[in-house]
Structure formats: structure tokens, C-alpha cells
Amino acid sequence: MKKQNLLRMDNVGIVVESLDKTIAFFLELGLELEGRSMVRGEWAGRVTGLGNQSVEIAMMATPDGNSRLELSRFINPKIIEDHRNAPVNALGYLRGLP
Q1: Is residue 86 domain-resident?
Q2: Are 39 and 53 in contact (CB under 8 A)?
């Protein structure tokens, strides 16, 4: 079977502690801020399974517009675990961002 190369990445989401610092970090790498907004209410919680939630989000895009990075800062409910304290062999995204 012939190996396929990744052509695009539609959306990746990362939960962050500081939205401002993380946006600045990715702007420095060349991504563009598409928008920033609050997402609140039970309807949003049905998507995540977290119930009534309040989340500040920012959507960033690569300069070619083909890939998106969704940054989320949870206000409610509070973050209950911090992956930075997880062992290196834990499941999930384990690299720290600002």
C-alpha cells in the first residue's frame, strides 16, 4: 500500500490556561487569529458532556487557511486535571503550551 502524506488538518483543539499568552505564542509562529468568543450554556455542554459550561475560545488558522487550531479556556467547570503532572507515558497531548 502506498504511503499517503498529510495534506491538511481541519481542526485541532487545545485547552489552555492563558488564552492571551497562547494566542501570542501562535501568532509568533505565523498563525492568524480568526476570532475569539465566549461559548456558554447547557447546549454547549451537551456537545462536551460537561453540562452548563462557560468557555472562552479562540480560532486560529494557518496562513494558507487550510488548518485550524481551536484554543479553549474553561471558566466553568474548572479544569480538574493538569496534564503537566501526568507521567510521560499517559494518554493524550502531553506537551506544555503557555
Answers
A1: no
A2: yes
Residue 7 lies in a domain: no
Residue recorded with cell 466553568: 76
Single-letter amino acid, residue 66 = N
CATH code where residue 34 lies: 3.10.180.10
Dist. CA 79–CA 75, nearest whole Å: 8
Tell me which DSSP letter residue 47 carries: H
The single-letter code of the amino acid at 49 is G
Domains contained in the chain, number: 1
- Residue 26's domain comprises 12-78
* Whole-prediction pTM: 0.74
The strand pairing partners of 72, in sequence order, are: 15, 57
The sign of the CA dihedral 45, 91, 75, 38 is: negative
What averages of pLDDT result for each successive group of 10 residues across the chain (98 residues)? 69 87 95 94 78 90 89 84 68 54
The answer to whether 51 and 77 are in contact (CB under 8 A) is yes
